[in-house]
């Protein structure tokens, strides 16, 4: 989410006055301000929390109300389910044109009770009655959005290709050694990213090097001795580490549309992902990557790559072309601007 917000805010700031109302998490870079253009105004919402907290949520609503009154924006775009709830409760459609991108609805999470899932969906349906356009970040999320409100459309997440090139400038890609494949993933070591399965896959290939670029509360699950956990690092460093791997695995239990997958595809990594919304919206199985439903399928695919039983060069080239054609931030920013311009007439 952080990378996406930086890229879209910086692109938009070339034509609009952009204000980013934010809160931070443990994985947020300490010097996060430097990632944004100087023209982007940053305002902290101090009481914004990821989880439901009635007292802090009410305070956050009043913080947002105050911000809207001070800045008088023409457009407000809310990113994430929590921000979408806070924003739609705090802001009237008379004050600004409202847009909302869930980046994976809270009711799609697999680590919540059925009661909470039903509660999250009920809240979305109630707030979906507001005069607000939902802009889903993938085709799969768009299909979910239509169950909530007809005022929905979708624009794919994207990445800034110029930034990608700058991040790996001067780096020499490691030639692929099929007898010693290097396999990695990127993200928070939490339930969503399925470190349980990542560890099992690593155990099946004890002679291969596995790397997790990131950190999180489930780090202790990664017990296989051939797994290296790098911890959190800045984006450039993370991309350079990713660039030196052969295979990118994303066994997530749910997704919106993962930026790390787009980055891996652009860097021409062989991508093997779980069969969930977001992942399967980007990956055409067997063409620009692979989609797996079971643990055995990951094993079989890695064995085939190891034994040169798949045309991985063609797959890597197709992966990069997919990003250049469909997930280029420059094009995506233009789509957003067109929708902002249309406002109420965009659906």
CATH architecture annotation of the largest domain: 3-Layer(aba) Sandwich
Seen as an oligomer or otherwise, the chain set is single chain
- Determine the CATH topology of the largest domain: Rossmann fold
Question: Helical content, roughly?
Answer: 40-55%
Whole-number count of domains: 2
Strand order of the largest sheet: 9-8-7-10-11-12
- SS summary, helix count: 13
Categorize the overall geometry: globular
N- to C-terminal separation? 25 Å
Strand content: 5-15%
Number of strands: 12
The CATH C-level name of the largest domain is Alpha Beta
Question: How does the major sheet shape up?
Answer: 6 strands, parallel
Structural class computed from helices and strand pairing: alpha/beta
Tell me, rounded to a whole number, the average pLDDT: 92
CATH superfamily descriptor of the largest domain: Glycogen Phosphorylase B
Low-confidence stretches: none
What is the N-to-C order of secondary-structure elements (H for helix, E for strand)?
A: HEEHEHEHEHEHEHEEHEHEHEHHH
